[in-house]
Amino acid sequence: MSSGNGRNVPRGGGHGPAGGSRGAGGRGRGGRPPKPVRDEARNAAYDLMRAVDERDAYANLLMPALLRERRLSGRDAGLATELAYGTLRGLGTYDEVIAACSDRAPEDVDPPLLDAVRLGVHQLLRTRVPPHAAVGTTVDLVRLRVGIGASKYANAVLRKVSTRSLEQWIPIVAPDPAEDPVGHLAVAHSHPRWIVDALRDAVGGDFDETAALLAADNERPKVTLVARPGRSSVAELLDAGAEPARYSPYAAYLAEGDPGAVLAVAESRAAVQDEASQLVALALTRVPLEGSDSRWLDLCAGPGGKAGLLDAIATQQGEARLLAAELQYHRARLVWQTTRQAAVITADGTAPAWRPGVFDRVMLDAPCTGLGALRRRPEARWRRDPRSLPELGRIQRALLDSAIDAARPGGVVAYVTCSPHLAETVAVVGDVLRRRDDVEALDARDPLPEVEGLGEGPYARFWPHRHGTDAMFLALLRRR
Length: 480
Description:
Layout: H1 40-55, H2 59-70, H3 74-89, H4 91-100, H5 111-126, H6 131-145, H7 148-161, H8 166-173, H9 181-188, H10 193-202, H11 207-217, E1 223-227, H12 234-239, E2 243-244, E3 251-254, H13 263-266, E4 270-272, H14 275-286, E5 295-298, H15 305-317, E6 321-326, H16 329-338, E7 343-346, E8 359-365, H17 380-383, H18 389-406, E9 407-417, H19 426-435, E10 439-442, E11 460-462, H20 464-467, E12 472-479
Parallel strand pairs: 5-6, 5-8, 6-7, 8-9
Antiparallel strand pairs: 1-3, 1-4, 2-3, 9-12, 10-12, 11-12
Helix pairs in contact: 1-2, 1-3, 1-5, 3-5, 4-5, 5-6, 5-7, 6-7, 9-10, 14-15, 18-19
């Protein structure tokens, strides 16, 4: 953010209307505090926080709707998004700081008040909003949305928070890194402890790289566009203001602005899609095959990102056609809306509605914890539960067996997860390879020579701190 204050932040001290005065002692007429100014950007961020808490809303889906509803654009839209997403990412750290500045534990604070204070802490510790404005606008928000009594608590806590920087607070509120390195990283980088453990294992136990990965999770990700071949081009996206991408031949980065304002995106000839998501689909299409190459299958196609790219590539090649299957009807409709030539069906991939052994290429983007997309889904880290791993593992193994069964002899299967967790990646593929003698692992790095740092093979791994993408896992398997 260039300013951080937003359009409605008061200039005279952060408490009253811009350019106005409260009179002596900051009081209004009759000695009463004046009615707080409604800051639409901060109110939108607050409403998103409450929706995430009260009804498990998805921030990345709700925020665009809130911005349209409140008619926020430009700097105000950027401020609302940064405040909401940044606060959701930093909850773990901020709650520890709040606990150190309060006579109540965060879990004992009324949730509407706690969310407002968290927004204030984020402004104080991770933005360039001046401290007086961060405190004043948050106190006004609490008075407006929670109550005058609660605003006194918010004011007291935030003034204590403002006495130190984030770098000064971390040694105070986080465990000693020498005694509890995982606990220190969990607080310092605002991730649940079990996720820190899982990511550390995924990068081979290196704590320095784990710290870099956690820090990358807290960075605002680039908006990456995909130009679906035959329907749009990277040149068209560049003409619309995007920047050249690093890896994918179909990608471009949008530094600012609404992706929906790009004509190709509005017409569904292009879309928003993470670069790693593009590359795993591209890798599947690049594996050389002997014999036919006309029948492609996307086994878990919703909401349609990879299916949209596979459909475009298949159509451009001429003979190939994609069958996109999705278990949930509403997600299948999204796939149907994003593809043109694909046949889209609602089907359970573990009980397939197609004959076995007929597909040349099979994409399995398996359901997973989504730990690789924590940058774009900031609330996900607080919702995920390690107790879901056994059931997800059962589903992943069943789907991978089904994907292999669907492939013809000589056909190729891509097993993809948007998670680096070892239980969802190498453990699943390893179990299936040990049980079956009709499949072999290919080196998943070979179809992607333009990308370095994918690991030692045979699998390919994308990382936020290495590649600037989601953390994504790719295994390529050939049916014997």
